[in-house]
Design brief:
single chain, about 250 residues, alpha+beta, three-stranded antiparallel beta sheet, 6 helices, 11 strands
Length: about 250
Amino acid sequence: MPEKFEQPHKESPFREPLRTSDISPEWRGEDDREPLREFGARKDKIVRSVTLKELALAYDSKDPISDAKHLFDELKMKYGIDFSADFAVGKNEKGEPSFFVVADRIEGRDPLHAQVEGEERWHLYEALHKLFSSLIDYIQAKYESGDAFFWDIAKIDQYVYGTKAGESEKCLHLVDLDAEIVDVSGEVGGDLGWGRGENVSKFLDDLVQFINQSSFVVGKDFSDIKQKLRNFYDGVPDKHIREHFGTFDI
């Protein structure tokens, strides 16, 4: 199939044309989100955009651009989750004011399909252990503070075990670029409202599945991680999460 290049709008933040990326073909044309894109002359970067109108609706704030940047930046700076990106604002090819996230393309597989043996299996186990601990810290802090959080970053397919261009050592990278899938309700601990409680529950459900699936890959049961997760549950009075607790296989 010939590649379709989209010339940038005159107010685009990029000079190069963009093309629909082949990195995630199941996304293309299957929902209302803009597809992942790449620059025309290179394949080491992935571009994801969301209109400023959509971003403003998602964040319900006076400065959603700064809010989105902060949430992305704290993933690595505060929680040690391997994610790095550049951000830009301009118009997409349709002329709509948009927020762009530009991240490194990672060559590899998600942890469930990573083929690892020997020392590399141990390396992946250590990376997963660190990630799971960080994700628990993340959701616990957000639950207790009421701060905004990305509720879809605990899914196994949001991570790739692989390398960036120019690097040889494999690492576990977050590849989720969705700035608008966020909970900004601001509700703090206790008995959360339906939306907040459901989003926290969804995050935890994804995380439990991620842990259990990864156990088969690395041959470890992550018992201390599961205990850390149980300790969090024990301190959660929210009825939505407690009612959902019975479905968690930990």
